[in-house]
Amino acid sequence: MARLLRVRLNPTTFERSTVASGTENPKTILSLHPKASSFRTKTMSHSSIPREKLIRKCRQKKKEEEEEPLGGDMEDLFSEKETQKIRRSMLEWYDTNQRDLPWRRRREEEEGEKEKRAYEVWVSEIMLQQTRVQTVMEYYKRWMLKWPTIHHLAQASLEEVNEMWAGLGYYRRARFLLEGAKMVVAEKEGFPNQASSLMKVKGIGEYTAGAIASIAFNEAVPVVDGNVIRVLARLKAISANPKDRHTIKNFWKLAAQLVDPSRPGDFNQSLMELGATLCAVSKPSCSSCPVSGQCRAYSHFQENGSIPVTDYPTKVVKAKPKHDFCCVCVLEILNQESNQSGGRFVLVKRPEGGLLAGLWEFPSVILDKEANLTTRRNAINIYLKEAFHVEPKKTCNVVSRKELGEFVHIFTHIRRKIYVELLVVQLTEGETNDLFKEQAKDTLTWKCVDSDVLSTMGLTSAVRKVYSMVEAHKQGLSAAPVSSNRTAISRKRRIT
User: Fold this and answer.
1) Which of residues 75 and 483 earns the better pLDDT score?
2) Would you call 179 a catalytic residue per the annotation?
3) What is the pLDDT, as a whole number, of residue 476?
4) Which residues share a beta bridge with 449?
5) Alpha-carbon gap, residue 291 to 388, rounded angstroms
6) Which CATH number is correct for 72-311, 3.40.640.10, 3.55.40.20, 1.10.340.30, 3.30.1360.40?
7) Of these residues, 125, 219, 332, 421, which one is catalytic?
8) Within 10 A of 343 (CB to CB), how many other CB atoms are there?
9) Where exactly are the structural domains of the chain?
10) Which region ranges are annotated with the description Disordered (predicted)?
11) Which range has highest mean pLDDT (203-217, 320-334, 410-424, 441-455)?
12) Greater pLDDT, 363 or 110
Protein backbone atom coordinates (compact mmCIF):
# COMPACT_ATOMS: atom_id res chain seq x y z
CA MET A 1 0.00 0.00 0.00
CA ALA A 2 1.38 3.30 -1.00
CA ARG A 3 2.62 5.64 1.75
CA LEU A 4 1.51 9.23 1.20
CA LEU A 5 3.82 12.13 2.04
CA ARG A 6 1.68 14.95 3.40
CA VAL A 7 3.13 18.40 2.79
CA ARG A 8 1.65 21.73 3.81
CA LEU A 9 2.19 24.14 0.90
CA ASN A 10 2.45 27.90 0.98
CA PRO A 11 0.42 29.77 -1.64
CA THR A 12 3.33 29.89 -4.08
CA THR A 13 4.20 28.06 -7.30
CA PHE A 14 5.72 24.63 -6.90
CA GLU A 15 7.12 22.21 -9.42
CA ARG A 16 5.45 18.84 -9.63
CA SER A 17 6.27 16.69 -6.61
CA THR A 18 6.57 12.95 -6.32
CA VAL A 19 4.55 10.74 -3.98
CA ALA A 20 6.82 8.20 -2.37
CA SER A 21 5.62 4.61 -2.16
CA GLY A 22 6.99 1.45 -0.74
CA THR A 23 7.69 0.14 -4.24
CA GLU A 24 9.59 3.17 -5.46
CA ASN A 25 13.35 3.50 -5.69
CA PRO A 26 14.58 4.22 -2.11
CA LYS A 27 17.37 6.36 -3.55
CA THR A 28 14.89 9.07 -4.50
CA ILE A 29 13.90 11.47 -1.70
CA LEU A 30 12.26 14.88 -1.66
CA SER A 31 13.88 18.15 -0.75
CA LEU A 32 12.38 21.62 -0.55
CA HIS A 33 14.30 24.57 -2.00
CA PRO A 34 12.70 27.64 -0.41
CA LYS A 35 14.37 30.15 -2.73
CA ALA A 36 12.91 28.43 -5.78
CA SER A 37 9.72 27.56 -3.92
CA SER A 38 9.78 24.07 -5.44
CA PHE A 39 10.43 20.41 -4.79
CA ARG A 40 13.27 18.64 -6.52
CA THR A 41 14.62 15.15 -6.38
CA LYS A 42 17.95 14.38 -4.75
CA THR A 43 19.87 11.12 -4.90
CA MET A 44 21.33 9.49 -1.80
CA SER A 45 23.51 6.42 -1.51
CA HIS A 46 22.17 3.33 0.29
CA SER A 47 24.94 3.69 2.85
CA SER A 48 24.96 6.85 4.95
CA ILE A 49 27.82 9.29 4.63
CA PRO A 50 30.61 8.31 7.05
CA ARG A 51 30.74 10.44 10.21
CA GLU A 52 34.37 11.44 9.58
CA LYS A 53 33.45 12.77 6.14
CA LEU A 54 30.61 14.86 7.60
CA ILE A 55 32.96 16.31 10.20
CA ARG A 56 35.49 17.22 7.49
CA LYS A 57 32.78 18.90 5.42
CA CYS A 58 31.57 20.91 8.44
CA ARG A 59 35.12 22.03 9.24
CA GLN A 60 35.73 23.00 5.63
CA LYS A 61 32.50 25.01 5.52
CA LYS A 62 33.42 26.78 8.76
CA LYS A 63 36.88 27.57 7.39
CA GLU A 64 35.38 28.98 4.20
CA GLU A 65 33.02 31.16 6.26
CA GLU A 66 35.93 32.46 8.31
CA GLU A 67 37.94 33.23 5.18
CA GLU A 68 35.05 34.66 3.17
CA PRO A 69 35.56 38.10 1.62
CA LEU A 70 34.08 41.14 3.30
CA GLY A 71 30.93 40.72 1.22
CA GLY A 72 27.91 42.98 0.63
CA ASP A 73 28.76 46.62 1.24
CA MET A 74 32.03 45.54 2.88
CA GLU A 75 33.31 43.84 -0.25
CA ASP A 76 36.63 45.66 -0.40
CA LEU A 77 39.37 46.82 1.90
CA PHE A 78 40.98 50.23 1.62
CA SER A 79 43.35 50.69 -1.28
CA GLU A 80 47.01 51.28 -0.48
CA LYS A 81 46.63 54.93 -1.52
CA GLU A 82 43.58 55.37 0.73
CA THR A 83 45.35 53.68 3.63
CA GLN A 84 48.40 55.95 3.44
CA LYS A 85 46.26 59.06 3.06
CA ILE A 86 44.04 58.16 6.03
CA ARG A 87 47.04 57.36 8.24
CA ARG A 88 48.77 60.62 7.45
CA SER A 89 45.63 62.76 7.81
CA MET A 90 44.56 61.13 11.06
CA LEU A 91 47.94 61.43 12.76
CA GLU A 92 48.38 65.06 11.70
CA TRP A 93 44.92 65.88 13.03
CA TYR A 94 45.49 63.97 16.27
CA ASP A 95 48.83 65.65 16.98
CA THR A 96 47.11 69.02 16.82
CA ASN A 97 43.67 68.30 18.27
CA GLN A 98 43.97 65.51 20.84
CA ARG A 99 42.38 66.25 24.21
CA ASP A 100 44.63 66.68 27.23
CA LEU A 101 43.71 63.60 29.28
CA PRO A 102 45.63 62.36 32.35
CA TRP A 103 46.25 58.88 30.92
CA ARG A 104 47.78 60.22 27.68
CA ARG A 105 50.96 61.75 29.00
CA ARG A 106 54.07 60.40 27.29
CA ARG A 107 56.76 58.46 29.10
CA GLU A 108 60.33 57.47 28.44
CA GLU A 109 60.98 54.16 26.74
CA GLU A 110 62.48 52.34 29.73
CA GLU A 111 60.89 48.96 30.35
CA GLY A 112 59.68 49.85 33.83
CA GLU A 113 57.99 52.98 32.53
CA LYS A 114 56.34 50.97 29.75
CA GLU A 115 54.77 48.67 32.33
CA LYS A 116 53.51 51.62 34.37
CA ARG A 117 52.14 53.13 31.17
CA ALA A 118 50.42 49.82 30.38
CA TYR A 119 48.78 49.79 33.80
CA GLU A 120 47.53 53.36 33.33
CA VAL A 121 46.11 52.56 29.89
CA TRP A 122 44.45 49.45 31.29
CA VAL A 123 42.74 51.32 34.14
CA SER A 124 41.60 54.16 31.89
CA GLU A 125 40.22 51.88 29.18
CA ILE A 126 38.22 49.80 31.66
CA MET A 127 36.81 52.95 33.25
CA LEU A 128 35.93 54.45 29.87
CA GLN A 129 33.77 51.48 28.86
CA GLN A 130 30.19 52.83 28.80
CA THR A 131 31.21 55.94 30.78
CA ARG A 132 31.82 59.54 29.73
CA VAL A 133 35.35 60.92 29.65
CA GLN A 134 34.53 63.85 31.94
CA THR A 135 33.14 61.46 34.55
CA VAL A 136 36.14 59.14 34.32
CA MET A 137 38.82 61.80 34.78
CA GLU A 138 38.19 62.41 38.49
CA TYR A 139 37.81 58.70 39.20
CA TYR A 140 41.06 57.98 37.38
CA LYS A 141 42.98 60.60 39.35
CA ARG A 142 41.70 59.28 42.69
CA TRP A 143 42.44 55.71 41.64
CA MET A 144 46.04 56.49 40.69
CA LEU A 145 46.64 58.35 43.93
CA LYS A 146 45.52 55.29 45.90
CA TRP A 147 47.01 52.56 43.67
CA PRO A 148 49.77 54.12 41.49
CA THR A 149 51.08 50.75 40.22
CA ILE A 150 49.69 47.32 39.49
CA HIS A 151 51.50 46.01 42.58
CA HIS A 152 49.63 48.47 44.79
CA LEU A 153 46.31 47.44 43.25
CA ALA A 154 47.06 43.74 43.72
CA GLN A 155 47.18 44.31 47.50
CA ALA A 156 43.71 45.89 47.60
CA SER A 157 40.50 44.17 48.71
CA LEU A 158 37.40 43.91 46.57
CA GLU A 159 35.50 46.07 49.03
CA GLU A 160 38.11 48.84 48.73
CA VAL A 161 37.98 48.66 44.95
CA ASN A 162 34.18 48.72 44.89
CA GLU A 163 34.12 51.76 47.15
CA MET A 164 36.54 53.57 44.84
CA TRP A 165 34.45 52.53 41.82
CA ALA A 166 31.08 53.50 43.30
CA GLY A 167 29.11 55.66 40.87
CA LEU A 168 30.80 54.44 37.68
CA GLY A 169 28.40 51.52 37.30
CA TYR A 170 29.04 48.11 35.72
CA TYR A 171 30.84 46.99 38.85
CA ARG A 172 31.98 43.72 37.33
CA ARG A 173 34.62 45.77 35.50
CA ALA A 174 36.20 46.74 38.82
CA ARG A 175 36.22 43.17 40.08
CA PHE A 176 37.88 41.88 36.90
CA LEU A 177 40.44 44.69 37.05
CA LEU A 178 41.42 43.64 40.57
CA GLU A 179 41.49 39.93 39.70
CA GLY A 180 43.59 40.65 36.61
CA ALA A 181 46.10 42.70 38.62
CA LYS A 182 46.45 39.90 41.18
CA MET A 183 46.98 37.41 38.35
CA VAL A 184 49.73 39.45 36.66
CA VAL A 185 51.59 40.10 39.92
CA ALA A 186 51.29 36.48 41.06
CA GLU A 187 52.86 35.14 37.86
CA LYS A 188 55.99 37.30 38.45
CA GLU A 189 56.74 37.57 34.73
CA GLY A 190 56.13 41.28 34.36
CA PHE A 191 53.30 42.97 32.52
CA PRO A 192 52.32 41.07 29.31
CA ASN A 193 53.50 43.14 26.36
CA GLN A 194 51.64 41.56 23.42
CA ALA A 195 47.93 41.53 22.64
CA SER A 196 47.83 37.72 22.49
CA SER A 197 49.29 37.35 25.98
CA LEU A 198 47.25 40.24 27.40
CA MET A 199 44.04 38.46 26.42
CA LYS A 200 44.91 35.66 28.85
CA VAL A 201 44.56 38.10 31.77
CA LYS A 202 41.23 38.12 33.59
CA GLY A 203 38.92 40.82 32.27
CA ILE A 204 41.05 41.81 29.24
CA GLY A 205 39.31 41.26 25.93
CA GLU A 206 40.40 41.89 22.36
CA TYR A 207 39.74 45.63 22.45
CA THR A 208 41.51 46.32 25.76
CA ALA A 209 44.42 44.07 24.76
CA GLY A 210 44.83 46.00 21.50
CA ALA A 211 44.72 49.34 23.28
CA ILE A 212 47.35 48.37 25.88
CA ALA A 213 49.64 46.62 23.38
CA SER A 214 49.56 49.43 20.82
CA ILE A 215 49.70 52.42 23.18
CA ALA A 216 52.12 51.12 25.80
CA PHE A 217 54.23 48.62 23.83
CA ASN A 218 53.96 49.95 20.26
CA GLU A 219 52.58 46.71 18.83
CA ALA A 220 50.84 47.22 15.48
CA VAL A 221 47.44 45.77 16.41
CA PRO A 222 44.01 47.35 15.88
CA VAL A 223 41.30 48.40 18.31
CA VAL A 224 37.58 48.39 17.62
CA ASP A 225 35.07 50.04 19.96
CA GLY A 226 31.84 51.92 19.35
CA ASN A 227 33.64 55.06 18.22
CA VAL A 228 35.89 53.18 15.79
CA ILE A 229 32.92 51.27 14.35
CA ARG A 230 31.14 54.56 13.69
CA VAL A 231 34.17 56.04 11.90
CA LEU A 232 34.79 52.92 9.79
CA ALA A 233 31.10 52.44 8.96
CA ARG A 234 30.96 55.99 7.60
CA LEU A 235 34.28 55.80 5.78
CA LYS A 236 33.05 52.73 3.88
CA ALA A 237 29.28 53.49 4.01
CA ILE A 238 28.67 50.12 5.64
CA SER A 239 24.98 49.44 6.19
CA ALA A 240 25.36 45.91 7.59
CA ASN A 241 24.17 45.29 11.14
CA PRO A 242 27.06 46.52 13.34
CA LYS A 243 26.14 43.99 16.05
CA ASP A 244 26.37 41.01 13.71
CA ARG A 245 29.30 38.69 14.43
CA HIS A 246 30.56 38.64 10.83
CA THR A 247 30.21 42.42 10.49
CA ILE A 248 32.22 42.98 13.67
CA LYS A 249 34.91 40.62 12.36
CA ASN A 250 35.09 42.69 9.18
CA PHE A 251 35.43 45.93 11.14
CA TRP A 252 38.48 44.38 12.80
CA LYS A 253 39.89 43.58 9.34
CA LEU A 254 39.47 47.18 8.24
CA ALA A 255 40.98 48.54 11.44
CA ALA A 256 43.93 46.15 11.14
CA GLN A 257 44.60 47.36 7.62
CA LEU A 258 44.61 51.00 8.64
CA VAL A 259 46.72 50.85 11.82
CA ASP A 260 50.00 52.69 11.32
CA PRO A 261 52.97 50.36 12.04
CA SER A 262 55.23 53.23 13.08
CA ARG A 263 52.74 54.85 15.49
CA PRO A 264 50.06 52.24 16.22
CA GLY A 265 49.07 53.62 19.61
CA ASP A 266 48.64 57.18 18.39
CA PHE A 267 46.75 56.05 15.30
CA ASN A 268 44.34 53.90 17.31
CA GLN A 269 43.73 56.78 19.68
CA SER A 270 43.15 59.10 16.73
CA LEU A 271 40.33 56.88 15.44
CA MET A 272 38.74 56.75 18.88
CA GLU A 273 39.22 60.50 19.34
CA LEU A 274 37.61 61.26 15.98
CA GLY A 275 34.59 59.11 16.84
CA ALA A 276 34.29 60.77 20.25
CA THR A 277 34.47 64.33 18.93
CA LEU A 278 33.92 65.22 15.24
CA CYS A 279 32.33 61.97 14.05
CA ALA A 280 29.59 62.09 16.68
CA VAL A 281 26.47 59.94 16.72
CA SER A 282 23.89 62.59 15.85
CA LYS A 283 25.66 65.80 14.78
CA PRO A 284 28.94 64.99 13.01
CA SER A 285 31.21 67.89 12.01
CA CYS A 286 32.02 66.59 8.54
CA SER A 287 33.42 69.91 7.29
CA SER A 288 36.18 69.74 9.92
CA CYS A 289 36.89 66.02 9.56
CA PRO A 290 40.45 65.17 8.45
CA VAL A 291 39.25 62.19 6.36
CA SER A 292 36.05 63.60 4.84
CA GLY A 293 37.68 63.26 1.43
CA GLN A 294 37.86 59.49 1.89
CA CYS A 295 34.42 59.16 3.53
CA ARG A 296 31.85 57.39 1.36
CA ALA A 297 28.96 58.29 3.64
CA TYR A 298 29.82 61.98 3.31
CA SER A 299 30.19 61.56 -0.45
CA HIS A 300 26.73 59.95 -0.68
CA PHE A 301 25.28 62.82 1.32
CA GLN A 302 26.82 65.39 -1.02
CA GLU A 303 25.39 63.55 -4.02
CA ASN A 304 22.00 62.91 -2.43
CA GLY A 305 21.04 65.03 0.54
CA SER A 306 18.32 62.56 1.53
CA ILE A 307 20.95 60.07 2.73
CA PRO A 308 22.52 61.67 5.81
CA VAL A 309 25.86 60.58 7.23
CA THR A 310 24.07 59.61 10.41
CA ASP A 311 22.44 56.70 8.57
CA TYR A 312 25.74 54.92 9.23
CA PRO A 313 26.21 52.74 11.13
CA THR A 314 22.78 51.14 10.94
CA LYS A 315 20.67 51.71 14.04
CA VAL A 316 19.90 48.46 15.84
CA VAL A 317 16.65 48.21 17.77
CA LYS A 318 17.45 47.58 21.42
CA ALA A 319 15.68 44.87 23.34
CA LYS A 320 13.03 46.19 25.70
CA PRO A 321 14.22 46.13 29.31
CA LYS A 322 12.71 43.71 31.77
CA HIS A 323 10.44 45.36 34.34
CA ASP A 324 10.70 44.38 37.99
CA PHE A 325 9.78 45.78 41.38
CA CYS A 326 11.76 46.06 44.58
CA CYS A 327 10.87 47.17 48.10
CA VAL A 328 13.76 48.59 50.14
CA CYS A 329 13.62 48.82 53.92
CA VAL A 330 16.09 51.24 55.48
CA LEU A 331 16.42 49.60 58.89
CA GLU A 332 17.67 52.02 61.54
CA ILE A 333 18.42 50.63 65.01
CA LEU A 334 18.43 53.15 67.82
CA ASN A 335 20.98 53.01 70.59
CA GLN A 336 19.26 51.32 73.52
CA GLU A 337 21.25 53.22 76.11
CA SER A 338 20.46 56.71 74.85
CA ASN A 339 17.56 58.64 73.46
CA GLN A 340 19.51 60.20 70.61
CA SER A 341 17.62 60.54 67.35
CA GLY A 342 20.30 58.94 65.18
CA GLY A 343 20.99 55.21 65.20
CA ARG A 344 22.88 52.65 63.13
CA PHE A 345 21.82 51.45 59.69
CA VAL A 346 21.84 47.84 58.56
CA LEU A 347 23.60 47.15 55.24
CA VAL A 348 23.52 43.82 53.39
CA LYS A 349 26.26 42.56 51.09
CA ARG A 350 25.03 41.24 47.75
CA PRO A 351 26.15 37.80 46.49
CA GLU A 352 29.55 37.60 44.77
CA GLY A 353 27.94 36.72 41.45
CA GLY A 354 25.31 38.44 39.33
CA LEU A 355 24.07 42.02 39.28
CA LEU A 356 26.03 44.43 41.53
CA ALA A 357 28.06 41.53 42.89
CA GLY A 358 29.65 42.05 46.31
CA LEU A 359 28.24 45.55 46.85
CA TRP A 360 26.49 46.93 49.93
CA GLU A 361 22.83 47.92 49.98
CA PHE A 362 19.89 48.33 52.35
CA PRO A 363 17.74 45.25 53.04
CA SER A 364 15.45 44.65 50.07
CA VAL A 365 13.07 42.19 48.47
CA ILE A 366 12.42 41.69 44.74
CA LEU A 367 8.72 41.32 43.91
CA ASP A 368 7.16 39.35 41.05
CA LYS A 369 4.81 42.21 40.23
CA GLU A 370 3.67 45.60 41.42
CA ALA A 371 2.20 45.31 44.93
CA ASN A 372 0.29 47.43 47.41
CA LEU A 373 1.68 48.67 50.72
CA THR A 374 0.36 45.76 52.78
CA THR A 375 1.90 43.14 50.48
CA ARG A 376 5.21 44.96 50.40
CA ARG A 377 5.40 45.24 54.19
CA ASN A 378 4.53 41.57 54.62
CA ALA A 379 7.38 40.64 52.26
CA ILE A 380 9.83 42.87 54.14
CA ASN A 381 8.69 41.52 57.52
CA ILE A 382 9.36 37.93 56.40
CA TYR A 383 12.80 38.91 55.12
CA LEU A 384 13.78 40.77 58.33
CA LYS A 385 12.68 37.83 60.46
CA GLU A 386 14.65 35.27 58.44
CA ALA A 387 17.78 37.40 58.00
CA PHE A 388 18.09 39.23 61.33
CA HIS A 389 15.53 37.69 63.71
CA VAL A 390 13.86 41.08 63.73
CA GLU A 391 10.06 41.02 64.03
CA PRO A 392 8.36 44.41 64.35
CA LYS A 393 6.24 44.59 67.55
CA LYS A 394 7.56 41.18 68.74
CA THR A 395 11.34 41.21 69.10
CA CYS A 396 11.72 44.98 68.87
CA ASN A 397 9.92 48.18 69.61
CA VAL A 398 8.86 50.03 66.46
CA VAL A 399 9.68 53.69 66.94
CA SER A 400 8.42 54.68 63.50
CA ARG A 401 7.70 53.17 60.09
CA LYS A 402 7.29 55.54 57.18
CA GLU A 403 6.84 55.17 53.42
CA LEU A 404 9.29 57.61 51.81
CA GLY A 405 8.28 57.25 48.18
CA GLU A 406 9.37 55.45 45.05
CA PHE A 407 11.60 55.95 42.01
CA VAL A 408 12.70 54.12 38.87
CA HIS A 409 16.27 52.94 38.38
CA ILE A 410 17.39 51.61 34.99
CA PHE A 411 20.14 49.04 34.66
CA THR A 412 21.37 47.75 31.29
CA HIS A 413 18.47 45.34 30.75
CA ILE A 414 16.27 45.99 33.77
CA ARG A 415 13.84 48.80 34.55
CA ARG A 416 13.34 48.56 38.31
CA LYS A 417 10.67 50.39 40.29
CA ILE A 418 11.91 50.83 43.86
CA TYR A 419 9.66 51.47 46.86
CA VAL A 420 11.42 52.94 49.90
CA GLU A 421 10.46 52.79 53.55
CA LEU A 422 12.26 53.81 56.75
CA LEU A 423 11.82 51.46 59.71
CA VAL A 424 13.22 52.75 63.01
CA VAL A 425 13.36 50.16 65.81
CA GLN A 426 14.78 49.70 69.27
CA LEU A 427 15.80 46.15 70.17
CA THR A 428 15.60 44.44 73.52
CA GLU A 429 18.88 43.68 75.26
CA GLY A 430 19.00 40.05 74.15
CA GLU A 431 18.13 40.85 70.57
CA THR A 432 20.76 43.58 70.51
CA ASN A 433 23.43 41.05 71.44
CA ASP A 434 22.23 38.61 68.77
CA LEU A 435 22.20 41.23 66.04
CA PHE A 436 25.54 42.86 66.85
CA LYS A 437 27.57 39.73 67.56
CA GLU A 438 30.99 39.63 65.95
CA GLN A 439 31.37 37.84 62.62
CA ALA A 440 34.49 36.81 60.76
CA LYS A 441 35.37 39.41 58.17
CA ASP A 442 35.49 36.94 55.26
CA THR A 443 32.00 35.62 56.06
CA LEU A 444 30.38 38.97 56.76
CA THR A 445 27.16 39.38 54.81
CA TRP A 446 25.73 42.35 56.71
CA LYS A 447 26.91 45.09 59.01
CA CYS A 448 25.65 48.09 60.97
CA VAL A 449 27.08 51.54 60.32
CA ASP A 450 26.25 54.98 61.66
CA SER A 451 25.18 57.86 59.47
CA ASP A 452 28.66 59.43 59.37
CA VAL A 453 30.18 56.25 57.94
CA LEU A 454 27.24 55.68 55.58
CA SER A 455 27.54 59.13 54.04
CA THR A 456 31.21 58.52 53.14
CA MET A 457 30.90 54.93 51.83
CA GLY A 458 31.18 54.07 48.18
CA LEU A 459 27.58 53.20 47.35
CA THR A 460 25.80 52.60 44.08
CA SER A 461 23.73 55.46 42.67
CA ALA A 462 20.47 53.65 43.55
CA VAL A 463 21.53 53.14 47.18
CA ARG A 464 22.65 56.77 47.41
CA LYS A 465 19.26 57.83 46.07
CA VAL A 466 17.53 55.78 48.77
CA TYR A 467 19.69 57.31 51.49
CA SER A 468 19.09 60.83 50.18
CA MET A 469 15.34 60.18 50.64
CA VAL A 470 16.05 59.16 54.25
CA GLU A 471 18.08 62.33 54.85
CA ALA A 472 15.36 64.47 53.30
CA HIS A 473 12.78 62.88 55.57
CA LYS A 474 14.93 63.44 58.65
CA GLN A 475 15.40 67.06 57.69
CA GLY A 476 11.65 67.47 57.45
CA LEU A 477 11.71 67.94 53.67
CA SER A 478 9.12 66.60 51.28
CA ALA A 479 9.82 63.05 50.20
CA ALA A 480 6.93 62.67 47.77
CA PRO A 481 7.14 59.98 45.07
CA VAL A 482 9.61 60.88 42.36
CA SER A 483 7.91 61.77 39.08
CA SER A 484 8.77 59.85 35.94
CA ASN A 485 10.79 62.71 34.46
CA ARG A 486 13.02 62.82 37.55
CA THR A 487 13.85 59.15 37.83
CA ALA A 488 17.27 58.06 38.97
CA ILE A 489 18.77 56.48 35.92
CA SER A 490 21.97 54.51 35.38
CA ARG A 491 22.08 54.12 31.62
CA LYS A 492 24.52 52.52 29.23
CA ARG A 493 26.20 55.53 27.61
CA ARG A 494 28.51 56.08 24.74
CA ILE A 495 31.95 57.51 25.24
CA THR A 496 32.03 61.20 24.32
Assistant:
1) 75
2) no
3) 82
4) 345
5) 63
6) 1.10.340.30
7) 125
8) 20
9) 1-55, 72-311, 323-486
10) 17-52, 59-78
11) 203-217
12) 363
